[in-house]
Amino acid sequence: MREIIFYGSDFGNKPVEDFLANLEPDARAKVSRALELLRAQLIVPGKFWKKLAGSGLWEVRVEYAGNIYRILATTAKGNRVILLHGFQKKSQKTPRQDMEIAQQRQKRYFQRHGYL
Q1: Residue 115: pLDDT above 70?
Q2: Mean per-residue pLDDT over the chain, rounded
Q3: Across the strands, what pairs with 50?
Q4: What is the CATH number of the domain that holds 11?
Q5: What does residue 83 show for φ and ψ, rounded to 5 degrees?
Q6: How far is CA 46 from each of CA 80, 90, 97, 108, rounded to the nearest angstrom?
Q7: Could you tell me whether strands 80-89 and 67-76 are parallel, antiparallel, or unpaired per DSSP bridges?
Q8: pLDDT score of 4 more than 90
Q9: Number of domains making up the chain
Q10: Nearest-angstrom CA–CA distance, 40 and 51
Q11: Is the CB of residue 68 less than 8 Å from the CB of residue 62?
């Protein structure tokens, strides 16, 4: 089992929780099911959980009603997954700005908590 952690900013904001709260209820439910799958399953289908090449980031992938939702995450020791940034994807490629936000939060998380 993995431990799912919502990244919290220095001010206590949890951007992925805010992202989920703003989704319509059915989309939120589908994303929540994908996160539960990630938490509970040893092997998660690539359709829902994929390593992003060359970045050290992972992506939770959900499609619902023609929309594509992504949550960028990082992993830490102890089977932890830290959810860094959520967004609705509108193009094939993950937008650079979204990658940069996630990488800044990843760096900040590890500065605060170390890699353990």
Answers
A1: no
A2: 93
A3: 59
A4: 3.30.2310.20
A5: -80, 120
A6: 18, 20, 23, 27
A7: antiparallel
A8: yes
A9: 1
A10: 18
A11: yes
Which tokens go with 74? 């990082």
Range of the domain at 53: 3-113
Residues 25-66 have pLDDT tens digits of 999 999 999 999 999 999 999 999 999 988 889 999 999 999
pLDDT band at 73 (very low <50, low <70, confident <90, very high): very high
Residue 81 CA, chain-centre distance (Å), reads: 8
| Rounded Cα gap, residues 28 and 58, in angstroms | 19
The structure's pTM equals 0.94
Those residues with Cβ within 8 angstroms of residue 49's Cβ, 6 or more apart along the chain or in another chain: 34, 37, 38, 58, 59, 60, 61
- 3-state secondary structure string, the chain? CCEEEECCCCCCCCHHHHHHHCCCHHHHHHHHHHHHHHHHCCCCCCCCEEECCCCCCEEEEEEECCEEEEEEEEEECCCEEEEEEEEEECCCCCCHHHHHHHHHHHHHHHHHHCCC
- Provide the pairing of β-strand 67-76 with 3-6: unpaired
